[in-house]
Design brief:
With about 500 residues, the protein is α+β, with helices and mostly antiparallel strands. The protein has 21 helices and 16 strands.
């Protein structure tokens, strides 16, 4: 199961950038951990030791039971002053935002403003695709269940748009979708895409007459007393937003001024803190109630968590998808969970509604290759929370591979120096021209193809954010290879011409 969860949701993302990935997962079996009276302390110890091995700068763990916080712990530092995270420290919660958007949609269903099976065009008349018939078939339910036919790449590209505000989201999405052909028929199958939830955010605005951010603040944050949660990054920074980090060849690098892709606000850019998210989890494990108030009807909560479609990617079983949540049955225990993946933040939340228990982990760092072991660690902690025995495997996997990519420019430089040295002493004879070009030039050809594939895919900006070190290596080395391959070929032909 550990390997399975590691590839969930990120499996499709990994496939898009397969030309960048040249590693294998490592696992080192160790002693087991079993639940005890100090289970939460064991979970804390396990998580923070593993996060330390991954060189994560800071993290916050909170566990709720019923209507109270059962455990909280802060790890490392989240600010330039070296302060540890507290219950009121804001983090970008990334795709945990989807559960807020789904909750808002169900609130509007409760009051009759939205119908799940109504076409999207009823609420967004401008909504259209390259296939008008397909556009007319897409319903609100398909958006919230991720079965609209929009692919993952379309949503990923938007995460690299750091200049467009949410106020311009309609225009951006209208232009992006006008020429888009769905990868499959609406309602046919699950495929995770941020576009679905961005459109839901625009539907919320259309039926309420207020901005998405204002609606969330008035109808979710305020009723739950989430006073340290934000829809605006600037306001969050004024109130102690944790400093995000990426990783460069395994070492954390602060990104204090990285803006959010605001046009994707409704799919992954809300900001909250451990204490506020604890209240949010309590409301969910208590059937929509918190502190005597209700944020959603019992029927709405049941629909929110109802498994709607089998989720999977690249043949990997991901359980089922509900509304902004993955739903799984593991050893007789119902788990409702979601993770959040950003260039500089990671989040993970799991609910055990039958036990009225929930757990949240917020991390102020991420990287595409680090995301895999982070998911693995969270799965192990979830097993511990369920009272299951887990193996203390040292995480790392793909994260351990990244320093290996430094060998590429090193080998490239050494190869160029070696050729130059040989060429000065004895130019390559004509008879070995073809063999020399093909064999010695093969590594350069592979680098050129890798860089060209990345540029053609349209994912360059995304890769520079989520995989900066390896992307830069491939782009720079690919460019050097283009110049060197042309120069080297010319030198060989010139030397061969002289010899003949």
């Amino acid at each position: 199961m550990k390997t399975k969860r590691c590839f969930r949701r990120s499996a499709a993302l990994f496939s898009v950038l397969f030309i960048l990935c040249a590693g294998v997962l490592f696992a080192e079996a160790g002693k087991g951990v079993s639940p005890s009276s100090g289970m939460y302390e064991e979970i804390e110890d396990y998580l923070f030791r593993r996060l330390g091995e991954l060189r994560v700068p800071g993290a916050a763990l909170v566990v709720v039971e019923g209507d109270e916080i059962a455990h909280f712990a802060g790890f490392g530092k989240v600010g330039r002053g070296g302060e540890a995270p507290g219950l009121a420290t804001p983090f970008v919660i990334e795709s945990l935002t989807k559960s807020f958007t789904a909750l808002a949609v169900m609130q509007l269903v409760d009051v009759g403003k939205v119908e799940l099976d109504a076409p999207v065009q009823r609420y967004l008349p401008w909504f259209d695709l390259a296939d008008p018939a397909a556009a007319a078939k897409i319903t609100v339910r398909m958006l919230v269940n991720q079965t609209s036919g929009f692919n993952q790449i379309l949503g990923m590209i938007g995460l690299a748009d750091l200049e467009t505000s949410w106020a311009d989201a309609r225009e951006v999405h209208e232009q992006a979708l006008a020429g888009f052909m769905p990868s499959r028929q609406p309602g046919e199958a699950y495929e995770y895409s941020n576009i679905n939830f961005n459109l839901l955010g625009l539907i919320i605005e259309a039926v309420t007459g207020e901005s998405y951010g204002a609606y969330i603040e008035n109808n979710v944050f305020t009723p739950l007393g989430m006073n340290h949660s934000y829809t605006d990054q600037a306001e969050a920074r004024q109130n102690g937003l944790a400093e995000g980090h990426t990783f460069l060849f395994g070492l954390p690098k602060a990104l204090p001024d990285l803006p959010l892709p605001e046009a994707s606000l409704a799919s992954g850019q809300l900001i909250s803190c451990p204490g506020d998210m604890a209240r949010y989890m309590m409301a969910h494990v208590n059937g929509g109630e918190y502190a005597g108030g209700r944020i959603l009807s019992p029927a709405g909560m049941e629909e929110l968590f109802h498994p709607a479609v089998k989720a999977g990617a690249m043949g990997v079983d991901m359980g089922q998808y509900a509304m902004g949540w993955f739903v799984e049955e593991s050893q007789g225990s119902l788990r409702i969970w979601h993770d959040g993946f950003g260039p500089d933040f990671f989040s993970y939340m799991v609910l055990f509604p039958e036990e009225k228990r929930g757990m949240l982990l917020l991390v102020n760092a991420n990287h595409m290759f680090v995301n895999f072991p982070l998911l693995e660690v969270c799965e192990a902690a979830t097993d511990m929370l369920a009272g299951q025995r887990v193996e203390e495997a040292s995480p790392g996997g793909l994260a351990k591979v990244t320093p290996v990519f430094l060998l590429i420019p090193l080998a490239q430089i050494l190869g160029i120096l070696y050729f130059a040295r040989r060429y000065r002493k004895r130019p390559v004879p004509y008879s070995k021209r073809a063999l020399g070009i093909l064999l010695a030039g093969l590594p350069h050809i592979l680098l050129i193809l890798a860089a060209a594939g990345l540029l053609i895919s349209g994912m360059t900006a995304f890769s520079l954010l989520f995989l900066p070190d390896i992307t830069l290596v491939l782009l720079v080395c690919g460019g050097v290879s283009v110049v060197w391959f042309i120069l080297r070929t010319w030198l060989i032909f010139r030397a061969s011409g002289r010899a003949s």
